[in-house]
Amino acid sequence: MPKVSDDHLAARRSQILDGARRCFADYGYDGATVRRLEEAIGLSRGAIFHHFRDKDALFFALAKDDAERMAEVAANQGIVQVMRDMLARPEEFNWLGTRLEIARRVRTDPEFRAGWTQRSAELTAATLARLERRKAAGALRDDVPTDVLLGYLDLVLDGLIARIASGHTNENLSAVLDLVEASVRRKES
């Protein structure tokens, strides 16, 4: 039997995650049946579950992958810019549905919550590091602890995601982000 290349395995894994992301976003975790996953991914259950132990492992890998991508964007561009990009190009943020499903599972599944807590630390660390760098450069308020700024921005991000996912976007959201950005900047004396 010929050996499959690492590139082929990586491409197959990416294909599975991309299809699963669409399926979980469209149907939620519970509604993403194996049959729907097969249809969305374009592979048989054998091919899918050759790469992932079960549906739960597939979802967790997808959530981890999306958190890593989000952490990278947050570290390089900042969380408010990420939110601006979400408003401007929502079609490029196909992990929104996954993030909503993660929030639901964190609330309802203790085993998932335990595993997710470790993974979400990556996004938190990336955002916190950027905030610390910006604060040290004098760009952010120094009268508010950095972890409070992080909590504030996380709340805004979660609210924006819920808003976009429910289809209630409008021109005012850009102005709201202007207000958020102004509220965390250091005031000029």
Assembly category: single chain
Q: What portion of residues belong to β-strands?
A: under 5%
Tell me the radius of gyration.
Answer: 19 Å
Query: What is the rounded distance between the termini?
Result: 71 Å
Please count the helical segments: 9
Report on the biggest sheet.
none
* Secondary structure: helix percent: over 70%
Low-confidence stretches: none
What best-fitting shape do the alpha-carbon axes yield?
elongated
SS elements, strand count: 0
Mean pLDDT: 85
List the helices and strands and how they pair.
Elements: H1 6-31, H2 34-41, H3 45-51, H4 55-77, H5 79-88, H6 96-108, H7 110-136, H8 146-165, H9 172-184
Structure description:
This is TetR/AcrR family transcriptional regulator. It holds the Pfam family TetR_N. Residues 33-52 bind DNA. Residues 10-70 form the HTH tetR-type domain. Keywords: DNA-binding. The protein is an all-alpha fold and 189 residues long. Helix content is 78%, strand content 0%. The chain contains nine helices and no strands. The protein has helices at residues 6-31, 34-41, 45-51, 55-77, 79-88, 96-108, 110-136, 146-165, 172-184. Helix 1 packs across helix 4 (55-77), helix 4 (55-77) packs across helix 5 and helix 5 packs parallel to helix 8. It is elongated, with a radius of gyration of 19 Å.
